[in-house]
Sequence to fold (660 residues):
Amino acid sequence: MNKQALKSLVALALVVALFGCQDSETAKEQPIVEEVKTEVVQADKNSAELEKDTPVVEDLSYLIDEHSYANKDEVVLTHIDLDLDVLFDKKQLKGYADLSFSRLEDDAKTLVLDTRDLTIHKVSSINSDGIESAAEFELAARDDVMGSKLTIQLKDGEDKVRVYYNSNPQASGLQWLTPEQTAGKKEPFMFSQAQAIHARSFIPVQDSPDVRVTYKANIRTPKQLLAVMSAFNEPDTELDGDYHFDMPQAIPPYLIAIGVGDLKFKPMSKRTGIYSEQAYLDAAAKEFEDTEEMIDITEKMYGPYLWGRYDLLILPPSFPFGGMENPRLSFITPTVIAGDKSLINLIAHELAHSWSGNLVTNATWRDLWLNEGFTSYVENRIMEELFDTDRAIMENALSVQGLRDQVKSLPEGDTVLHITLDGRDPDDAFSGVPYTKGQMFLVFLEQRFGRETFDAFLNEYFSDHAFKSLTTPEFEKYLAKHLINKYPGKVTQAEINEWLHNPMLPDFMPNPQSDAFANVDTATTEWFAGDLSLRDIATDTWSIHEWLHFINNLPADISLEKMSELDNTYNLTTSTNNEVAHAWLKLAINRGYDLVNTRLEDYLISIGRRKLIVPLYKALMDTDNKSFAKRVYAIARPGYHPLAQGTIDAIVNPTLEAEN
Fold:
């Protein structure tokens, strides 16, 4: 029984199980689901395609994307044509989307789409001559996680519909900045952030990573502004307020992206360049000038870069992530422009997504580790080739230290790679687990099979699944056939299960150790023992990674006197490296070192990257600084992205989360 047949059979059963309501308990009560599962599993057991050493998957829930209403097993989108006006005064995208689709079931009568907070004006069916005729549609009530299901009645023989709509100011996937909130202070700025399920807040779409579409777009903006998208961007585009884009490769909806602002372009190489406000342009081009070399390195390891150009869009500091891997145009936070290339592993990470994530995609958000774990692994391999093994090990060691610390506070279920979300917002899946635990799983495989063998496997994996989406069970089957069974006796099925399906971290997880960090630890111990003064420590040769290791591993009960001595010697409170400042400010909050408060307030107001600010708000709320946190957040909140607002509302003032 093939995958499509399985999907159709299980989808039919889960309709009865109230799939649309996301009620897992109700689903369990439906006997028809269990009957169908038994039938499908038995069919799979009898299938010659099933590998003998691959365990039979009893739970077929992986076939369903619980975070999409889409009836993608009956009708699937194939192409989108967008025609939109960017209305800064109303904080809206307004226009229409032409949705081309393919019927997987000949008798399919409806197209079901995902939306969130969209105003739908009308829907038309479009025939082969391009003639519109009214189509019936229904927009269901809003679910807090899923948004509103849009059901469109289809006409026989037609394969395109047009949806007239506008987004709304509260769109979770868009941020609208006033001129005062930008670096230039003269023009407004708008950018999107569609991962995980926020594309539906500005496009009516089958918002599942298992759906891949090509797209074209006509975007109209104020004439003085430039629009860019995750598509082909012409570096010398005329600034005229009327822009046209084409993405010929099929991508999941969460990779559809747009940015509009007072943007300039500066090339870094023949196929790479920077889009940015003027304030960041030169510094970013210098900081990220190794991007072309990164592409060359990755091509040599894992095959050709298949996306044409690779440009970077430097966003305002309110961007909630370090970067977003939108194909052809990664979105990047300015917080990694450190002046010394110490944080450019972020660029390596976003570039690596061009192979793992964008080219080969997780089919559901339960499978996020297939995206981020593979990407973190490739990122570190790029950094090793670009710099050296020592730097790569230090970055790995810092990531593992962070992971070990984070799993202590995560719910146990959230430490499983193949996470069970049970209707929760898929944004909850983002933590160090899919990134670093996923990466260490691949490091484990590399160590067991050898780098040469594992690289050959990865090349084959990327090639076989190019422009496809897959689930964890599908990956397990592929892994068994192409690596584990091919080289028997190196890895057991129990070990694979421990990595993918068990909580917490395996006892046999690789634990990268850096000689440089060992030297830092020795100096720290000698300082605390009084055998060494701070000025005698050779910090002038330390990398940012050594500084982070030093600060992150200071005793939790370090005295205020020691804190003051560190600050007076190294000026840590005024550090211009945002990662170092974050580590120091977090320690200062926990120890009650109030001399950082002015710097802390400025830091929280000027930066919107969740990785850097969320832990600080949590630390403030866990100590005696609640009033400080609430006061600063009231000032900072209007400049934060909706994703950051939602996260921090729940930390600082849960009533705000309910109201917004």
